[in-house]
Amino acid sequence: MTATSAPTLAAAPRATADVPHRPTRITPGRVVRLVIFYLLLLIIALVFLTPYLFSLNASFKPLAAILSDHAWTPATSLSLTNFKEVLTSNGFATYLGNTVLITVIITVGQVLFSLMGAYAFARLRFPGRDALFWLYLSMLMVPNVVTMIPLYVLMDGAHLLNTYWALFLPYTLGTPYAVFLMRQYFLTLPSEILEAARLDGCSEARILFRILIPLARPIITTAAIIAFVFSWNNFLWPLIATNSSDLQVVTVGLANLQSNFGTQWNLVLAGSILVLIPLVVLFVIFQKQIVNSISLTGTNR
Questions:
Q1: C-beta contacts of 138-143 below 8 A and 24+ residues apart
Q2: H-type alpha helices, 211-264
Q3: Which domains, ranges and CATH numbers included, belong to the chain?
């Protein structure tokens, strides 16, 4: 009986493997649900995109056409006159240069120091590590506006107001959110990799920069994009910390543009589009890395 039952058991998997896969049946109700779902997504996308499309359209119009035409009336020509006038008036090109410089410094600093902090909280063992991490993470609940006055007093005491140091120094040494993202990612990596590196004589710095950073490119990209967007859009602190036009960033420059050209909406909208372009390009290039890093940080060991 053992000899006759063995072939039967062996043939069972082949019988189940040969069963053809039944295609998903498309019913009228399923089609209706899909159509409603995608229509809803289209409506939501239009709600969010319409103001940007109107601004882009108006940035090519002269002031008279903006005031007389409807917002959805297409521009008669794609003239770059408004953009040229914005870049050559009131130091707007200087504002862009300052913004690029400050944004690069803050982005590099936040990523570098957040990497080191996240590695310490994730892989190094020292007394009070978890309590210190949660205490540091609780700083996310403190609004930035609450720290403005103490930060201003600190910068004034250090004689750093109205300098480039005042613009990037408060935001360079990492952020709780970036440390949290990277820590969660480091926790998903196998500890055997680090133990093998330590057995080979690698220092903690070498493990971080030669092993973990190449593995953590998706989350580093996300942290860099978050830091870039924050620095590019930062308005309140640069407005408080500087009073010289040579040090102002593009967000403050746009506010000055609205006050100096309160009725010339063609220049205001053209300047807004110039400020928006780098953020759109950044997201289009790195959108896959952003989605990938979010899915990776959602899992933990």
A1: 138/176, 139/176, 140/176, 140/177, 140/180
A2: 213-215, 217-233, 236-241, 250-260
A3: 48-79 (no CATH), 82-297 (1.10.3720.10)
pTM to 2 decimal places = 0.78
Q: Is 181:297 a contact under the CB 8 Å cutoff?
A: yes
Q: Cα–chain-centroid distance for residue 195?
A: 33
115 in Cβ contact with 213 (< 8 Å): yes
pLDDT in tens, 26-73: 787 788 888 999 999 999 999 999 988 998 988 888 888 888 888 788
Q: Are 110 and 223 in contact (CB under 8 A)?
A: yes
Percent helix, strand, coil in the chain (nearest 5)? 75, 0, 25
pLDDT per position as a tens digit, 203-260: 888 888 888 888 888 888 888 988 999 999 999 999 999 988 889 999 998 888 776 6
